[in-house]
Amino acid sequence: MALKYYRKHPVWGYWSNSAFSKWLRTKAGLNNPEALSLKAWDEYKKGCEKKAPFTYWLTNTAFNKLQDAVYFIPNLFYSVGVFYKNWKCNSHVLSGNLPVGEWCDLSHRIPVCLFTSLERFIEDEKGLDTLAWELSDDLKKYYPLQHETALEQKAIYDWWKANKDRDLFVDSGLQAYYDRKLGSGGNIFSLAGDPEWEELSEKHTQMERQYKQEEEDMLIRLIKIRDSLWT
């Protein structure tokens, strides 16, 4: 096991983006844009390095390196905490909140664990507020690809939230039928040939097929956007 060094997001922000840093850049004739496309950021950086190279280096590279040095010890303790949390919680394991003590085939574990991991990622890691921001028109204007993947994340997330607790046996009406016919006991084989049983069984079969197809489609869509699932 190896300890990885992490930099915790500063409570008061990065020094390179502080009011003092922006003031220095303004004094040197540099502007401070809030949002740009990736191409525009590259052009902005080249323009700053040409117009005021020392000020740009000072307020970005130098300030960042100085802040890293000042926060080295706090970040080291933070890294130890991250290591302990991931080790203790076994964070590399995909868990789907499946019933403890019961066996589940891999064919069932795969979709449940993957969709549950997406649910936790959106709600706990990234946060619903961040997802809402990624879906906004402002982000779409500057980062269309991030906006597009956020739409896919939300579509898969919404489908899972709407379907994860579904019981097709209940939805098809078979559960109510069995309760009515066999509630006081009886043999299930006695229901064979009952038109109502055949109709409900066919309905249940069709619902299962539709659900499995939707589940497969969503799994494929999830795999295609897996590279966007990070914070």
Notes on the protein architecture:
- It is a single chain.
- The chain has 231 residues and is an all-alpha fold.
- It folds into two domains: 15-89, no CATH class; 106-228.
- Helix content is 68%, strand content 0%.
- It is built from eleven helices and no strands.
- It has helices spanning 19-27, 38-51, 53-70, 72-89, 106-126, 128-134, 137-142, 144-163, 168-171, 174-182, 195-224.
- Helix 2 packs across helix 3 and helix 5 packs across helix 6.
- It is elongated and about 90 Å long.
- It starts with 18 loop residues before the first helix and ends in a 7-residue tail after the last helix.
Draw up the topology in text.
Layout: H1 19-27, H2 38-51, H3 53-70, H4 72-89, H5 106-126, H6 128-134, H7 137-142, H8 144-163, H9 168-171, H10 174-182, H11 195-224
Helix percent band: 55-70%
* C-alpha-based Rg, rounded: 27 Å
The chain-level structural class is mainly alpha
Fraction in beta strands = under 5%
Quick gist of this model?
The protein is an all-alpha fold and 231 residues long.
What key attributes describe this structure?
elongated, mainly alpha, single chain, 231 residues, 2 domains
